[in-house]
From TrEMBL:
This is Neutral metalloproteinase. Residues 80-186 form the Peptidase M4 domain. It comes from Corallococcus sicarius. InterPro entries: Metalloprotease_M4, Peptidase_M4, Peptidase_M4/M1_CTD_sf, Peptidase_M4_C_domain, Peptidase_M4_domain. The keyword Zinc-finger does not apply. GO terms for cellular component: extracellular region. Belongs to the peptidase M4 family.
Length: 386
């Protein structure tokens, strides 16, 4: 029996661009860059308030079944052109089965939604985000110079970027997969969007967003770049992506963006109240654990590591306030259940978590001690304080 969760945890606006990055641009950018950042912040804050209001009393839509069996899968994609406006839905530009339009953002969104749907269907037998054939809606060309992309519980929304710091937000397939995966997590996992549970939420989206791209490119774990948002940063920006799952903290180091603040190990865990308790910053710790597990398991990352993490998200022992240590324990239990107790798969998962400072044993779960004398907080430069 699948869990049915009340809608209280569905209050977050899931943006690909962390608030601390937008704030840093507003602090360090040129007048035009600051203006674009402030407009982006205003839009994001408005949608967060709307999400909080609409979440009251919401209930999860039941999975669609026919005769006790899952209906045959079929993609349903609808891409709307906002034309620089902010009032939904915009003009329908492309729907399922129609050919390319020549509008690169429309066509990238169409292809990215299709690749994400195909990934979940082909790998996990999952019929869309809700496993019930949910149509996938995307809205491109949103607002003027809007520097973000988000999932609001109903639709994907993409800005065109300012062309100075960010390119169009449809440019990276893993960004599309990341945002849509938030919808899958909302349906499956009761993860609060706060502190470690929220960082797990973000990590799961990074993981499946990366796997969507890897499967589309038919890459093995050792061939993948493990970058989130490669191609998003405009020419002249000193960086390669928004995040690196392989080497957290190395994605960018730029006078306007600041330095990538993500830690790679629990000893560098960032304690902050910003960004819902650091959900985008500390997501790098479980991200790296997944990357390490994928390399140890070999082959294509979605085959074993992806299956283990997917089953962990669906596990009944996952709690709304689940922290890294508990989730690590659940992944080890899922590896044991799927591939045999004490097997190489379980060992790979346990070893991967150990390398980021989270020790998993059969008796208990212990976590590498997080420093408490100095409390890092993200400064306007984008760097954690010393």
């Amino acid at each position: 029996m699948r869990r049915v969760h009340p809608g209280w945890h569905r209050h977050s606006l899931y943006c690909i661009l962390p608030p601390y990055v937008v704030r840093t641009i507003a602090q360090n950018g040129s007048p035009a860059q600051r203006a674009a950042a402030l407009r982006t912040m205003a839009v994001d804050n408005t949608f967060r308030a709307l999400r909080l209001t609409s979440a009251v009393g919401a209930q999860r839509v039941p999975t669609r079944r026919i005769g006790g069996m899952m209906a045959e899968s079929q993609r349903q994609r609808f891409i709307y052109n906002m034309g620089g406006q902010e009032g939904f839905p915009g003009t329908l530009a492309r729907s399922e089965g129609q050919g390319a339009t020549g509008d690169v953002a429309v066509d990238e969104a169409y292809d990215g939604l299709g690749a994400t749907y195909d990934f979940f269907w082909e790998v996990f037998g999952r019929d869309s985000l809700d496993d019930g054939g949910m149509p996938l809606n995307a809205h491109v060309h949103y607002g003027m110079n809007y520097n973000n992309a988000f999932w609001d519980g109903q639709r994907m929304v993409f800005g065109d970027g300012d062309g100075d710091i960010f390119n169009r937000f449809t440019i990276a397939m893993d960004i599309i997969g990341h945002e849509l995966s938030h919808g899958m997590t909302e349906d499956e996992g009761p993860l609060m969007y706060f502190r470690q549970a929220g960082a797990l939420n973000e990590s799961i989206s990074d993981i499946f967003g990366s796997l969507v791209k890897q499967k589309f490119l038919n890459q093995t774990a050792d061939q993948a770049d493990w970058l989130i948002g490669a191609g998003l940063l405009a020419d002249g920006v000193q960086g390669k992506a928004l995040r690196s799952m392989k080497d957290p903290g190395t994605a960018y180091d730029d006078p306007v963006l600041g330095k990538d603040p993500q830690p790679a190990h629990m000893r560098d865990f960032v304690r902050t109240w910003e960004d819902n308790g650091g959900v985008h910053i500390n997501s790098s710790i479980p991200n790296r654990a997944f990357y390490l597990a994928s390399l140890k398991l070999g082959g294509c990352a979605w085959e074993k590591a992806g299956r283990i993490w997917y089953e962990a998200l669906r596990d009944m022992r996952l709690r709304p306030d689940c922290g890294f240590a508990r989730f690590a324990r659940i992944t080890s239990l899922c590896a044991s259940r799927l591939y045999g107790e004490g097997g190489t798969e379980e060992a790979a998962v346990v070893d991967a978590w150990g390398e980021v400072g989270i020790k998993v044993t059969r008796e208990k779960i212990s976590v590498a001690r997080v420093p408490t004398l100095k409390v890092p907080a993200v400064q306007p430069s984008g760097r954690p304080s010393a």
